[in-house]
């Protein structure tokens, strides 16, 4: 069982927590966080390699942290970390999530199903987007 910090314990201000997101958030008290910034796996389980327009290979497509198996496993992981994010966020807290077309639509549906209010989508139009090689 994870030991949870209490609100009275010295919760450091302006701190970036690095580690397994579910385990790190599980240590935090309810309603204690102003912002959760997440960059979850994009579920890039592709047959083949992913390349940029200059033909350089995109790292991470075959990395262990992105190997969740299938959509059901990816959805279970996503729901688990979103549940913890919801628990630790203050009532007026904010959730920022980085995504790609591989995961953001499934994520958006889950956010709405869990009662999150989606205020805005921020789109970063990359000048060097990835493409799938044939």
From TrEMBL:
GO terms for molecular function: DNA binding; N-methyltransferase activity; site-specific DNA-methyltransferase (adenine-specific) activity. It holds the Pfam family N6_N4_Mtase. Keywords: Methyltransferase, Transferase. The keyword Aminoacyl-tRNA synthetase does not apply. It catalyses: a 2'-deoxyadenosine in DNA + S-adenosyl-L-methionine = an N(6)-methyl-2'-deoxyadenosine in DNA + S-adenosyl-L-homocysteine + H(+). GO terms for biological process: methylation. PROSITE patterns: N6_MTASE. InterPro entries: DNA_methylase_N4/N6, DNA_methylase_N6_adenine_CS, RM_Methyltransferase, SAM-dependent_MTases_sf. This is site-specific DNA-methyltransferase (adenine-specific). It comes from Elstera litoralis. The lineage of its organism: Bacteria, Pseudomonadati, Pseudomonadota, Alphaproteobacteria, Rhodospirillales.
């Amino acid at each position: 069982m994870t030991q949870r910090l209490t609100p009275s314990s010295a919760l450091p201000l302006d701190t970036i927590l690095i580690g397994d997101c579910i385990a790190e958030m599980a240590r935090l008290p309810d309603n204690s966080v102003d912002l959760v910034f997440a960059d979850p796996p994009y579920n890039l389980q592709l047959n083949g390699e992913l390349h940029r327009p200059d033909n350089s290979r995109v790292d991470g497509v075959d990395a262990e942290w992105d190997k969740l198996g299938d959509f059901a496993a990816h959805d279970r992981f996503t729901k688990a970390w979103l549940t913890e994010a919801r628990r630790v966020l203050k009532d007026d807290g904010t959730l920022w999530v980085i995504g790609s077309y591989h995961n953001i639509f499934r994520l958006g549906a889950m956010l709405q199903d869990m009662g999150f209010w989606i205020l805005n989508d921020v789109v970063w139009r990359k000048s060097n987007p990835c493409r799938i090689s044939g």
